[in-house]
Amino acid sequence: MTLDAAGQTAASQPESAEREAVDTNTSKTVGKPFCDDAKMRMRNVNVFYGETQAIHDISLDIGCNEVVAMIGPSGCGKSTFLRCLNRMNDTIEDCRVEGELTLDGEPIYGQKVDVVPLRARVGMVFQKPNPFPKSIYENVAYGPKIHGIARRRAELDEIVENSLRRAGLWNEVKDRLDQPGTGLSGGQQQRLCIARAIAVSPEVILMDEPCSALDPIATARIEELINELRENYTIAIVTHSMQQAARVSQRTAYFHLGRLVEVNDTETVFTNPQHELTEAYITGRFG
Ligand SMILES: Nc1ncnc2c1ncn2[C@@H]1O[C@H](COP(=O)(O)OP(=O)(O)OP(=O)(O)O)[C@@H](O)[C@H]1O
Ligand SMILES: [Mg+2]
Questions:
Q1: Each residue of 97-126: pLDDT tens digit?
Q2: Is pLDDT at 195 greater than 70 in this prediction?
Q3: Nearest ligand to the C-alpha of residue 260?
Q4: Strand 251-256's sheet: what is its strand order?
Q5: Which among 112, 114, 69 has a CA at the least distance from the CA of 281?
Q6: Which domains are seen in the chain, by residue range?
Q7: Measuring from atom 2 of ligand 1, which residue has the nearest CA?
Q8: In this structure, which ligand is nearest to the CA of 84?
Q9: Element housing 243 (H / E)
Q10: Is the pLDDT of residue 274 over 90?
Q11: What are phi and psi of 277, to 5 degrees?
Protein backbone atom coordinates (compact mmCIF):
# COMPACT_ATOMS: atom_id res chain seq x y z
CA MET A 1 0.00 0.00 0.00
CA THR A 2 1.38 3.45 -0.85
CA LEU A 3 1.00 6.57 1.27
CA ASP A 4 0.80 10.03 -0.22
CA ALA A 5 2.20 13.20 1.33
CA ALA A 6 -0.88 13.69 3.52
CA GLY A 7 -0.51 10.21 4.88
CA GLN A 8 -3.56 8.87 3.10
CA THR A 9 -3.47 5.61 1.25
CA ALA A 10 -3.54 6.22 -2.47
CA ALA A 11 -6.35 3.70 -2.77
CA SER A 12 -8.56 5.73 -0.46
CA GLN A 13 -8.55 8.73 -2.83
CA PRO A 14 -11.06 8.91 -5.62
CA GLU A 15 -9.27 8.25 -8.90
CA SER A 16 -10.60 11.42 -10.52
CA ALA A 17 -9.09 13.59 -7.78
CA GLU A 18 -5.70 12.08 -8.48
CA ARG A 19 -6.02 12.80 -12.16
CA GLU A 20 -7.06 16.39 -11.52
CA ALA A 21 -3.85 16.87 -9.56
CA VAL A 22 -1.94 17.07 -12.88
CA ASP A 23 -2.65 20.15 -14.95
CA THR A 24 -3.33 18.60 -18.32
CA ASN A 25 -4.03 21.85 -20.12
CA THR A 26 -1.81 21.73 -23.19
CA SER A 27 -3.49 24.41 -25.28
CA LYS A 28 -0.53 26.76 -24.94
CA THR A 29 3.15 25.88 -24.95
CA VAL A 30 4.82 27.11 -21.77
CA GLY A 31 8.42 28.32 -21.57
CA LYS A 32 10.56 29.62 -24.41
CA PRO A 33 9.50 28.20 -27.76
CA PHE A 34 10.88 31.19 -29.69
CA CYS A 35 14.33 32.71 -30.10
CA ASP A 36 15.79 35.87 -31.61
CA ASP A 37 18.15 34.23 -34.09
CA ALA A 38 15.85 31.56 -35.49
CA LYS A 39 17.27 29.41 -38.27
CA MET A 40 13.95 27.62 -38.64
CA ARG A 41 10.59 29.02 -37.62
CA MET A 42 7.50 26.86 -37.31
CA ARG A 43 4.11 28.43 -36.67
CA ASN A 44 0.76 26.75 -36.00
CA VAL A 45 1.81 23.43 -37.49
CA ASN A 46 -0.88 20.77 -37.79
CA VAL A 47 -0.19 17.36 -39.28
CA PHE A 48 -2.78 14.78 -40.34
CA TYR A 49 -2.48 11.16 -41.39
CA GLY A 50 -5.69 10.81 -43.36
CA GLU A 51 -8.43 11.93 -41.00
CA THR A 52 -6.31 11.53 -37.88
CA GLN A 53 -4.52 14.57 -36.52
CA ALA A 54 -1.05 13.72 -35.18
CA ILE A 55 0.30 17.24 -34.52
CA HIS A 56 -1.82 20.01 -33.01
CA ASP A 57 -0.95 23.66 -33.50
CA ILE A 58 2.77 23.55 -32.71
CA SER A 59 4.88 26.70 -32.89
CA LEU A 60 8.63 26.55 -32.31
CA ASP A 61 11.89 28.20 -33.37
CA ILE A 62 15.20 26.46 -33.73
CA GLY A 63 18.06 28.91 -33.33
CA CYS A 64 21.33 29.19 -35.23
CA ASN A 65 24.07 26.99 -33.75
CA GLU A 66 21.64 25.55 -31.29
CA VAL A 67 20.82 21.95 -30.40
CA VAL A 68 17.15 21.46 -29.57
CA ALA A 69 16.22 18.11 -28.02
CA MET A 70 12.72 16.73 -28.57
CA ILE A 71 11.45 14.36 -25.90
CA GLY A 72 8.15 12.76 -24.95
CA PRO A 73 6.32 9.44 -24.71
CA SER A 74 6.18 7.08 -27.65
CA GLY A 75 3.60 8.12 -30.23
CA CYS A 76 3.47 11.78 -29.13
CA GLY A 77 4.54 13.01 -32.58
CA LYS A 78 8.28 13.72 -32.28
CA SER A 79 9.23 11.96 -35.52
CA THR A 80 6.21 13.37 -37.34
CA PHE A 81 7.15 16.91 -36.33
CA LEU A 82 10.84 16.41 -37.16
CA ARG A 83 9.94 15.13 -40.63
CA CYS A 84 8.00 18.35 -41.29
CA LEU A 85 11.27 20.28 -41.15
CA ASN A 86 12.68 18.87 -44.38
CA ARG A 87 9.41 17.77 -45.95
CA MET A 88 10.16 14.12 -45.37
CA ASN A 89 6.43 13.67 -44.61
CA ASP A 90 5.85 14.34 -48.33
CA THR A 91 7.01 10.77 -48.91
CA ILE A 92 4.20 9.39 -46.73
CA GLU A 93 0.96 8.93 -48.59
CA ASP A 94 -2.00 10.48 -46.79
CA CYS A 95 0.15 12.78 -44.69
CA ARG A 96 -0.84 16.45 -44.79
CA VAL A 97 1.09 19.32 -43.19
CA GLU A 98 -0.48 22.71 -42.45
CA GLY A 99 1.12 25.82 -41.01
CA GLU A 100 3.98 28.17 -41.69
CA LEU A 101 7.48 26.73 -41.74
CA THR A 102 10.48 28.76 -42.80
CA LEU A 103 14.22 28.31 -43.21
CA ASP A 104 16.09 31.62 -43.03
CA GLY A 105 12.72 33.31 -43.38
CA GLU A 106 11.87 31.51 -46.65
CA PRO A 107 8.86 29.19 -46.71
CA ILE A 108 9.81 25.53 -47.07
CA TYR A 109 6.33 24.47 -48.16
CA GLY A 110 5.13 25.97 -51.36
CA GLN A 111 4.73 24.89 -54.92
CA LYS A 112 7.96 26.48 -56.07
CA VAL A 113 10.15 24.85 -53.44
CA ASP A 114 12.29 22.02 -54.79
CA VAL A 115 12.65 19.43 -52.04
CA VAL A 116 15.97 18.06 -53.33
CA PRO A 117 18.04 21.17 -52.50
CA LEU A 118 15.89 21.69 -49.39
CA ARG A 119 16.90 18.27 -48.09
CA ALA A 120 20.53 19.08 -48.83
CA ARG A 121 20.19 22.19 -46.65
CA VAL A 122 18.20 20.33 -43.99
CA GLY A 123 19.79 16.89 -43.68
CA MET A 124 18.54 13.93 -41.72
CA VAL A 125 20.02 11.06 -39.74
CA PHE A 126 17.64 8.22 -38.94
CA GLN A 127 17.26 5.92 -35.96
CA LYS A 128 18.53 2.91 -37.84
CA PRO A 129 21.78 3.51 -39.73
CA ASN A 130 20.89 3.19 -43.40
CA PRO A 131 24.07 3.27 -45.51
CA PHE A 132 23.56 2.87 -49.25
CA PRO A 133 24.61 -0.53 -50.66
CA LYS A 134 27.76 1.11 -51.97
CA SER A 135 31.34 1.57 -50.84
CA ILE A 136 32.22 3.71 -47.84
CA TYR A 137 33.66 6.29 -50.26
CA GLU A 138 30.56 6.34 -52.46
CA ASN A 139 28.24 6.68 -49.47
CA VAL A 140 29.84 10.02 -48.69
CA ALA A 141 30.60 11.13 -52.28
CA TYR A 142 27.11 10.43 -53.63
CA GLY A 143 25.42 13.56 -52.23
CA PRO A 144 28.10 16.04 -53.34
CA LYS A 145 27.97 14.45 -56.81
CA ILE A 146 24.20 14.58 -57.29
CA HIS A 147 23.96 18.08 -55.87
CA GLY A 148 26.75 19.23 -58.17
CA ILE A 149 28.92 20.35 -55.24
CA ALA A 150 31.97 18.52 -56.59
CA ARG A 151 32.65 16.64 -59.79
CA ARG A 152 36.39 16.17 -60.02
CA ARG A 153 37.89 13.24 -58.17
CA ALA A 154 40.32 15.40 -56.18
CA GLU A 155 37.49 17.62 -54.90
CA LEU A 156 35.43 14.60 -53.98
CA ASP A 157 38.37 12.96 -52.22
CA GLU A 158 38.76 16.05 -50.10
CA ILE A 159 35.06 16.21 -49.18
CA VAL A 160 34.99 12.49 -48.35
CA GLU A 161 38.04 12.75 -46.11
CA ASN A 162 36.85 15.91 -44.36
CA SER A 163 33.37 14.54 -43.74
CA LEU A 164 34.69 11.25 -42.40
CA ARG A 165 37.15 13.10 -40.19
CA ARG A 166 34.43 15.33 -38.78
CA ALA A 167 32.24 12.30 -38.12
CA GLY A 168 35.15 10.73 -36.23
CA LEU A 169 35.39 7.77 -38.60
CA TRP A 170 38.35 8.55 -40.86
CA ASN A 171 41.03 6.69 -38.94
CA GLU A 172 38.91 3.56 -38.78
CA VAL A 173 38.09 3.43 -42.49
CA LYS A 174 40.82 5.28 -44.41
CA ASP A 175 42.42 2.04 -45.57
CA ARG A 176 39.20 0.43 -46.74
CA LEU A 177 37.22 3.18 -48.44
CA ASP A 178 36.31 0.86 -51.30
CA GLN A 179 34.64 -1.67 -49.02
CA PRO A 180 30.85 -1.70 -48.52
CA GLY A 181 29.40 0.70 -45.96
CA THR A 182 27.06 -2.04 -44.83
CA GLY A 183 30.07 -4.03 -43.59
CA LEU A 184 30.80 -1.55 -40.79
CA SER A 185 29.64 -1.98 -37.18
CA GLY A 186 26.39 -0.29 -36.14
CA GLY A 187 28.16 2.65 -34.51
CA GLN A 188 30.46 3.06 -37.50
CA GLN A 189 27.50 2.91 -39.88
CA GLN A 190 25.76 5.65 -37.93
CA ARG A 191 28.90 7.82 -38.10
CA LEU A 192 29.06 7.05 -41.84
CA CYS A 193 25.47 8.29 -42.16
CA ILE A 194 26.42 11.44 -40.28
CA ALA A 195 29.43 11.88 -42.62
CA ARG A 196 27.06 11.43 -45.57
CA ALA A 197 24.69 14.03 -44.10
CA ILE A 198 27.43 16.63 -43.54
CA ALA A 199 29.16 15.98 -46.90
CA VAL A 200 26.63 18.21 -48.67
CA SER A 201 27.25 21.05 -46.16
CA PRO A 202 23.75 21.19 -44.71
CA GLU A 203 22.72 24.11 -42.55
CA VAL A 204 20.42 22.09 -40.31
CA ILE A 205 20.75 18.46 -39.24
CA LEU A 206 17.72 16.52 -38.01
CA MET A 207 18.47 13.43 -35.96
CA ASP A 208 15.76 10.95 -35.02
CA GLU A 209 17.02 8.83 -32.11
CA PRO A 210 20.46 8.52 -33.73
CA CYS A 211 21.95 6.52 -30.86
CA SER A 212 19.15 4.12 -30.03
CA ALA A 213 20.93 1.18 -31.67
CA LEU A 214 24.38 2.05 -30.33
CA ASP A 215 26.48 0.98 -27.36
CA PRO A 216 27.60 3.55 -24.74
CA ILE A 217 31.00 4.12 -26.38
CA ALA A 218 29.55 4.74 -29.84
CA THR A 219 26.86 6.91 -28.22
CA ALA A 220 29.46 9.01 -26.41
CA ARG A 221 31.32 9.53 -29.71
CA ILE A 222 28.14 10.73 -31.45
CA GLU A 223 27.31 13.05 -28.57
CA GLU A 224 30.80 14.53 -28.76
CA LEU A 225 30.27 14.99 -32.46
CA ILE A 226 26.94 16.76 -31.92
CA ASN A 227 28.73 19.20 -29.61
CA GLU A 228 31.34 19.88 -32.29
CA LEU A 229 28.82 20.16 -35.11
CA ARG A 230 26.85 22.77 -33.22
CA GLU A 231 29.59 25.31 -33.96
CA ASN A 232 28.58 25.23 -37.62
CA TYR A 233 25.13 23.72 -37.76
CA THR A 234 21.68 23.92 -36.27
CA ILE A 235 20.56 20.59 -34.86
CA ALA A 236 17.24 19.08 -33.79
CA ILE A 237 17.52 15.70 -32.08
CA VAL A 238 14.77 13.35 -30.98
CA THR A 239 15.84 11.18 -28.09
CA HIS A 240 14.31 8.83 -25.56
CA SER A 241 17.29 9.36 -23.28
CA MET A 242 16.82 12.26 -20.93
CA GLN A 243 20.49 12.04 -19.99
CA GLN A 244 21.37 12.46 -23.64
CA ALA A 245 19.04 15.44 -24.02
CA ALA A 246 20.68 16.98 -20.94
CA ARG A 247 24.19 16.36 -22.30
CA VAL A 248 23.81 17.62 -25.87
CA SER A 249 21.07 20.24 -26.04
CA GLN A 250 20.63 23.87 -25.08
CA ARG A 251 16.84 23.79 -25.18
CA THR A 252 14.50 20.87 -24.70
CA ALA A 253 10.99 20.53 -26.12
CA TYR A 254 8.53 18.23 -24.38
CA PHE A 255 5.79 16.74 -26.59
CA HIS A 256 2.62 15.10 -25.31
CA LEU A 257 -0.16 13.59 -27.44
CA GLY A 258 0.73 15.64 -30.51
CA ARG A 259 1.07 18.91 -28.62
CA LEU A 260 4.12 20.87 -27.59
CA VAL A 261 3.69 21.23 -23.85
CA GLU A 262 6.88 22.98 -22.79
CA VAL A 263 10.09 24.32 -24.30
CA ASN A 264 12.76 25.64 -22.00
CA ASP A 265 16.48 25.80 -21.39
CA THR A 266 17.47 22.18 -20.99
CA GLU A 267 18.57 22.71 -17.42
CA THR A 268 15.20 24.23 -16.51
CA VAL A 269 13.30 21.34 -18.10
CA PHE A 270 15.22 18.80 -16.05
CA THR A 271 15.55 20.67 -12.77
CA ASN A 272 12.56 22.98 -12.63
CA PRO A 273 9.96 22.09 -15.26
CA GLN A 274 7.13 24.58 -15.55
CA HIS A 275 4.38 22.28 -16.75
CA GLU A 276 3.09 19.46 -14.61
CA LEU A 277 3.04 17.08 -17.56
CA THR A 278 6.74 17.72 -18.16
CA GLU A 279 7.47 17.08 -14.53
CA ALA A 280 5.39 13.89 -14.55
CA TYR A 281 7.37 12.64 -17.55
CA ILE A 282 10.85 13.50 -16.38
CA THR A 283 10.23 12.05 -12.95
CA GLY A 284 9.05 8.83 -14.55
CA ARG A 285 5.40 9.03 -13.54
CA PHE A 286 4.47 8.10 -17.10
CA GLY A 287 5.97 7.68 -20.53
N1 LIG B 1 2.89 6.75 -41.56
C2 LIG B 1 1.94 6.92 -40.64
N3 LIG B 1 0.65 6.70 -40.95
C4 LIG B 1 -0.35 6.87 -40.04
N5 LIG B 1 -0.13 7.27 -38.77
C6 LIG B 1 1.12 7.50 -38.40
C7 LIG B 1 2.24 7.33 -39.31
N8 LIG B 1 3.38 7.64 -38.65
C9 LIG B 1 3.01 7.98 -37.40
N10 LIG B 1 1.67 7.89 -37.24
C11 LIG B 1 0.90 8.20 -36.01
O12 LIG B 1 1.17 9.53 -35.61
C13 LIG B 1 1.35 9.61 -34.20
C14 LIG B 1 2.74 10.16 -33.89
O15 LIG B 1 3.70 9.20 -34.30
P16 LIG B 1 5.27 9.50 -34.30
O17 LIG B 1 5.93 8.37 -34.99
O18 LIG B 1 5.50 10.85 -34.82
O19 LIG B 1 5.57 9.47 -32.73
P20 LIG B 1 6.97 9.49 -31.95
O21 LIG B 1 6.83 10.50 -30.86
O22 LIG B 1 8.09 9.66 -32.91
O23 LIG B 1 6.99 8.03 -31.29
P24 LIG B 1 8.27 7.08 -30.95
O25 LIG B 1 8.90 7.67 -29.73
O26 LIG B 1 7.64 5.74 -30.67
O27 LIG B 1 9.17 7.06 -32.15
C28 LIG B 1 1.11 8.21 -33.65
O29 LIG B 1 -0.22 8.12 -33.23
C30 LIG B 1 1.36 7.33 -34.85
O31 LIG B 1 0.61 6.16 -34.77
MG1 LIG C 1 9.71 8.44 -33.48
A1: 999 999 999 999 988 999 999 999 999 999
A2: yes
A3: 1
A4: 30-31, 259-265, 251-256, 67-71, 234-238, 204-208, 122-125
A5: 69
A6: 34-260 (3.40.50.300)
A7: 49
A8: 1
A9: helix 242-248
A10: yes
A11: -65, -40
